[in-house]
Amino acid sequence: MPPEPLRALAALSATIGRDPEQVQAAGGNTSLKLKGILWVKASGLWLADALERNLFVPVRLAPLLHGIRRGEPDPVTPAIARDLDTDGLRPSIETTLHGLLPHRVVVHTHSVRTIALAIRADAEDQLEARLSGLAWTFLPYAQPGVPLTRLVAARLETRPFDVLVLGNHGLVIGAETVEAATALLTEVERRLDGPVRPGGRLAAGGLETAAAALGLRQARHMEVQALAADSIAMAFATSGTLYPDHVIFLGRAPRMLAPWPDAEAVEAARAAGSKLMIVPGRGVALPVDAPRSADELALCLALVTARVPEGTPLVYLGTEAEDALLNWDAEKYRQELAR
Prior knowledge:
This protein is an alpha+beta fold. Helix content is 40%, strand content 14%. Helix 12 links the parallel strand 9 and strand 10 (277-279).
């Protein structure tokens, strides 16, 4: 059984896991260092379920850090404490990051407030104005896992920090207690908050009947449907992918379908690797077999783009970064669990 101190972390994990402005689907991860063991969230599971099931995998900290220092391609697997109760789970993709950070408690979210700033070309300037007075730092996008951990290790050699903003990715908070981590997360979220553009109106009738004939269904969240009535958000969303979990659960950049319906346009979107399809003025559609994770990441996209002012220059992941994520075994594992 996991140790008693994990209960507070599980409670925080469940709280942020149920908040779509903090965590979507199986995204985000939390951890606690205790007596030489790093208890870290399992890959592919939902933080929202932290009070209903065991989400945490025990990883021995000393061999993990040794493997990171030696530059081993996989420092995590040999360090899993298999003699403890692991339930056969695989540790989070970000286990090396959690292990490297000196804080006892680490919380990593895909906060929409953070992402709405972290995708901007002027992200660091925007953050400087809001996070002044906190021990914080910003890192441009790097592939999650070991590549990101190496950049963080280099940054730690030059400056300590408790708040890490990851370009095109999210937010990391470090503290010595769960209570302190909660307070710092709340303060950072308050500082990064900003205006949200109101959604427009959709045409009556939507796209239900035609969507079904094309093997599509409406996205479940009303906020996602509103994306089809916001020309500013549509332009941002269809210009490229903005963060890793979009690529994992929604594929390439969303496609705009106009005129509607158009079977050839739908097939072209599928062939290009896009799962999210926007019909201007009518609604947003996904493949009929898209899992719940896809709906949650579609919601994330709608929430993020509604916070970006018109005309803001953005940084997109690009094809090379998308390919690296789509062909990564660790992310294929998360996709399989989602299905």
